[in-house]
Amino acid sequence: MPNLILLMLSKDLRRELRSKEVFLSSFLFSLILLCIFYYAATSSSVAFEKLPNTALWICIAFSGTIGLHRTHQAELQNACYKALMMAPRDPGLLFLAKFAANATLLTIMSLLLLPLIALFFNLDLGSNLLKMIPGLVLGIAGFVAIGTLTVVISANTRISDILFPIIHLPLVVPVLIAGVNCTQKAMLGEISWTGIQILCVLNLVFLSLGFMTYAYLLEE
Q1: The pTM is what?
Q2: Average pLDDT, whole number, for the chain?
């Protein structure tokens, strides 16, 4: 079972390394958002110390949504999903592999954004970086778990690129709230154990739900 997940994960990551389509589009979109935040803040009276955490999670929310949709659409080409579904394996493993690939790409992008956010907003991460990573990784994992599950619901519709964000974003609100709380506390040198516990529960719920229902959703 772990070997199968690693095999499918490596396939997705190799494809992305060759094309860089999803990663570059998501990262450039995040960079544009950071520029908008920076220039909006410099032309207003908003305190800089309140913006880094907000900017980080808005970049994750919007760029992650774009990335999830594009990676799923890539699998629909040439009936790739149908071929994977015909393999004599539990389709839940396909869900876990897709989750792992999307979470890896979004985590890398977010870690690359952190020094840019520190530069834009004069933020000294310092020793607080290690305290920020657990909440950031768990928040991204919960965001991707929900997205990997919900993206298949809208995949076969004519307006999938519009319908997916409408379904996805309301569902990830609890994840975003807990993630924002965790990273905000971390920037102040504290650890939000309550936020981490909430994220762990949300990850467990949606990963289990995705593992059990992915095959049915793909068939639909």
Answers
A1: 0.86
A2: 81
